[in-house]
Amino acid sequence: MPTPHTTPNTRPAARPTARIAALAAATALTVAACGSSDDAGPVDTEAATTDPATSELTDAGTDSTATSDTTDTTPDSENAENPQGTGETITLVTYESFPSEGTRVNELLGEFAEQNGIEVEILIAGDTGTMLSKAELTAGNPEGDVMWGIDSTFLSRAIESEIFEPYTAAGLDAVPTALTDLVPNGEATPVDLGDVCINYDIDALDGLGLEPPATLDDLADPAYQDLLVVQNPASSSPGLAFLLATIDEFGEDGWQAYWSSLVDNGVQVVDGWTAAYYEQFSYAGGDRPLVVSYGSSPPFEVLFAETELDAAPTGVVESTCYRQIEFAGILAGTDQPDEARQLVDFLLTPEFQAALPLDVFVFPANSEVELDPVFQEYAVIPETSRELDPSTIETNRETWIDEWTDLVIG
């Protein structure tokens, strides 16, 4: 991510901890999978852009595609070092918090292009929920070729909508079976994992004379009235993950009363992660010191602070964390399936996976990758993350979202 609170190209992180050794175990944890982004995505989608080119995302459902059919006119002699190069351009569709330029991730995509003769354009399609909705409307005639960022809270919906072409990627032997078991038929490829948690602005709470909340119950305490901002689970992946965390805590018959108490306590709802973190969260200049974000947010604040910090300015309420796994998939109907498969293979390579923590602030799915020392110092890996049974989520997801909408939005 570039500088903080300007261009949200990555996700934030958590408070310092010596428990980073738990990462290997955490990577092996089973995560609840079901049927959004940043990601997670705003309903009022921002204009999508591509890198290196910039364009407006076409309305979902139109007969259009972002895939380039341009052939390479470079003489064979100039491609001598690239015998497998196709000279094609393919489009990676992703959520709004994926870095479109200026990071090691982007450099590696450039190296992939040099090695394979396949240019990769990045198409930002909003938060995960919005991105998935567009993919459903353009299924079979996709906006791009590969999609990054469908997470375990939206996975079953993506599979049911048949937006992906099944593919068993090279490199899956380095991915724990707890992740690959969620896609036993190669419906998509696990590429990273992380936790959605309540984050808090340490100085802002201190200025209010408040201790950080320790539990989900605390968020309904009048002491925290008008201090929390969350995302809409109908459009946002972290918003849906937080809803699932509350269902895990209070049960299928009790979460409704809990959300009613949050409404009474002044909870604010926005469409997606970017609006919550960069517009409403007090550390970014808003007036809400509690926000649904990621367990990987504090290292981001340390790394990109304008002045050097020796401690993270934001913290994470570990008891609220809900585990997510993100997937990449080949979009069904792509005109360039071979090139798309090569890109998916590349996304699992140790080099690319090693860049994810510092650029996307998620943990690599490849268990053989060692974390950067900065992440080892500042990231929080919950000893136990919340999760719901995938079949339970798949059966109830839409009903829960409808109930939540009636209760919270009205």
Provide a quick synopsis of the model.
With 410 residues, this protein is of the alpha/beta class. The protein is 32% helix and 17% strand. The longest helix has 20 residues, at 390-409.
Please give the structural blueprint.
Layout: H1 22-27, E1 50-51, E2 88-94, H2 104-116, E3 118-124, H3 128-137, E4 146-151, H4 155-160, E5 164-165, H5 177-180, E6 189-201, H6 202-207, E7 228-231, H7 237-250, H8 255-264, E8 268-270, H9 273-280, E9 290-294, H10 298-303, E10 314-331, H11 337-347, H12 350-360, E11 363-364, H13 373-378, H14 390-409
Parallel strand pairs: 2-3, 2-4, 7-8, 7-9
Antiparallel strand pairs: 1-3, 4-10, 5-10, 6-9, 6-10, 6-11
Helix pairs in contact: 2-12, 8-14
